[in-house]
Design a protein that fits this description.
Elements: E1 11-13, H1 23-29, E2 38-40, H2 48-53, H3 59-67, H4 77-87, E3 94-96, E4 101-105, H5 115-133, E5 137-142, H6 146-155, E6 161-168, H7 174-181, E7 187-193, H8 196-207, E8 217-218, H9 225-228, H10 230-242, E9 250-255, H11 260-271, E10 275-282, H12 287-294, H13 319-325, E11 329-330, E12 336-338, H14 342-348, E13 349-353, H15 356-370, H16 376-391, E14 398-403, H17 411-418, E15 439-442, H18 445-453
Parallel strand pairs: 4-14, 5-6, 5-8, 6-7, 7-15, 9-10, 9-14, 10-13
Antiparallel strand pairs: 1-2, 3-4, 11-12
Helix pairs in contact: 3-4, 3-10, 4-5, 5-6, 6-7, 10-11, 15-16
The structure holds pyridoxal-5'-phosphate.
Pyridoxal-5'-phosphate is lined by residues 113, 115, 146, 255-262, 310-311, 377, 404-405.
Length: 457
Amino acid sequence: MTMSDEKPILFYSTNRRAAPLPFRAALLQGLAPDKGLYMPERVPALRAEEIAGFAAMDYAGIAAAVCGPFLGGQIAADELASLCRDAYDFPVPLEPAGERRFVMRLDRGPTASFKDFAARLMGRLIQHALAREGRRLLILTATSGDTGSAIANAFHGLDNVRVLVLFPEKEVTPRQRKQMTTLGGNVGVIAVDGKFDHCQALVKRAFSDPALAGLRLSSANSINIGRLLPQIVYYFYAYSRLAGRSGEPAVFSVPSGNFGDMMGACLARRMGLPMRRLVVATNENDEFPRFLASGAYRPVEPSHNCISSAMNVGHPSNLARLVDLYGGHMDETGAVLEPPDMGRLRRDLFAVRIDDGETRRIIREAHEQCRLLLEPHGAVGWAGLQRYLEAEPWPGGLCVSLETAHPAKFPEEIRAILGFDPPLPPSLEGLESRPEAFERMANDYGAFRERLQAGYA
Ligand SMILES: *Cc1c(COP(=O)(O)O)cnc(C)c1O
């Protein structure tokens, strides 16, 4: 390989006022100091033969080949391959659902949501970076359920990192709680007597508290560049399994909330993945479909409470990256300071809003007509694909829709629509009987600070 001839890729901030950084520094930084998001200054292209060669590789091998060129030689190829093998030790099923139509199930990881894909590789990349520098970090995260368990599981057992998760005691389901509280080891959990917003406020205050500067706090939140790169991989994986060496174009449909997943698809296309169109399916939080149609961006405030709850986002933070990739500038408040190339965005993307009624209808239809068991998020993606195919029929064309969570995470909804309980995936089996450990705390910053000072790192 001739990667060494090329200059390593630096990561710049979408707000352009912070210094560009090499991968490892951007990874440990998270959000850029000017509140922008890090983006690669160039998107490495894969040759058609390289993409064809993925047909003979497993998921972990493809992950190393896709992420490697971004890392600027900061991780040796064999080390990256071993991090990927460790991160991706679960299946990625591609379920057929009609002529050349597939659902890619990203729900077989340890917390049964697609967030495992990004969190597990990011965790290992951070551990690797810290170990090199002999540093340790305390990751603080507030969760309303799913993100916290994905992060806690991703970092569980990694030596240089401790994780502390805060959750609102009365707002998470017992199953969600147990996904965090049964881990032990380097994962600490605090149940706060308050709401999710209170947990988030406690965490934010700790980050900006000079009295805690010595604790090396970090957030590992969803905008970290280390979570974006792994989300490019599964598009190449699906393509390698379904299109092989043909070079034919494919359509992907992505149920979208904060738009990390969709950004992964856009970067995959820039790297050379043959993509006819990308369907971006939102729930009733439809700021993006409206933006694409009108060219004017307005966040949805307050956000709508839809049954695809992980997608109830009124202003997706990763939108700043999409606007940047298409030549514009959106700041952290959502103000468009320079418009992106709307013509090109409209050619590449098809955005569609799916309401709760349609989401429930498609769960029933997919089950009756295609023997698919979808949950609300994946159903938004599948409904979005059907809408696209009505607008631009494509008989015999390869289409893949993403299922981002396991139906067993939404038993009440599935029972109400389909009349039975979805079977548990192996990762969630036995959870009920595992011992739990967590602390309880009032919504009180002073108490939280004292607890942190008493020692976690
Ligand atoms: C987070 C999440 C999404 C939305 O993904 P984004 O990358 O934020 O667009 C969709 N489905 C599920 C189940 C999620 O947890």
